[in-house]
Design goal:
This protein is mostly helical and 214 residues long. It has helices at residues 2-9, 11-22, 26-39, 49-59, 68-93, 95-100, 102-105, 109-122, 125-129, 136-146, 151-176, 180-184, 186-208. The protein is globular, with a radius of gyration of 18 Å.
């Protein structure tokens, strides 16, 4: 866990190391990371927004030889395919089975419950909205599959949410990631991105909080 926290807080430095070590294979590594973060329900803690932001910030610097359009295509494909795989896992496994099986023991049941509540409140729109909310982003397609959500409806919101998420993160990273303040305080910016993205979760939790009995 300490290594993961260090990777997230200093993600720009770690990405530079990956680029210098693997060259063009970096694109495949980035694809796999986003695919796992969105597609495998037991890995909701992997970086998402910050990874997109940092990678596109480096793409704005010619020294790293990253193509912003290729990054956009790779991130979009990983996001859409990841959610699709997650949906299929949920559809075949089912929410009930996930609560009792060995696989279910690997799932954060508290976060799964939050995703279910979020899904029940917002319906199909959850798939698009959840793109911008860490943790919920990983559980939402799993819940939709377990709830037998219509696949055409799911793929519609999957494509919409994936496109908006990747576009906003890539544009923000490419145009603002190399500002002097951002470069000098990148760790703080990453923390800020995470904090802002968690605001909807906090608001939902406060609204759903039951009043204590007097």
């Amino acid at each position: 866990m300490p290594q993961l926290i260090d990777f997230i807080l200093h993600i720009d430095e770690h990405l530079i190391t990956i680029i210098n070590s693997f060259g063009n294979w970096t694109y495949l590594i980035l694809f796999v990371m986003i695919f796992i973060e969105t597609g495998i329900v037991i890995f909701p803690f992997l970086p998402g927004d910050s990874l997109l932001f940092a990678a596109c910030a480096l793409a704005a610097n010619e020294a790293y030889h990253l193509n912003i359009w290729l990054l956009f295509a790779i991130f979009l494909a990983a996001a859409v395919l990841g959610d699709t795989v997650n949906y299929e896992i949920g559809r075949h496994l089912g929410l009930a089975a996930s609560n009792s099986s060995r696989f279910g023991q690997l799932i954060n049941q508290e976060k799964l419950g939050q995703a279910e509540a979020f899904f029940n409140k917002h319906g199909g729109k959850t798939i698009a909205i959840a793109r911008f909310i860490p943790l919920i982003r990983t559980f939402a397609p799993f819940v939709s599959g377990g709830s037998r959500m219509n696949y055409r409806k799911f793929i519609h919101y999957n494509l919409l949410g994936g496109f908006l998420w990747v576009t906003m993160c890539c544009v923000a990273g490419f145009f603002f990631g190399n500002q002097l303040f951002v470069k000098a305080h990148f760790s703080l910016v990453v923390i800020g991105i995470i904090a802002i993205s968690l605001v909807p979760v906090l608001i939902t939790a406060l609204r759903n909080r039951k009043p204590t009995a007097e």
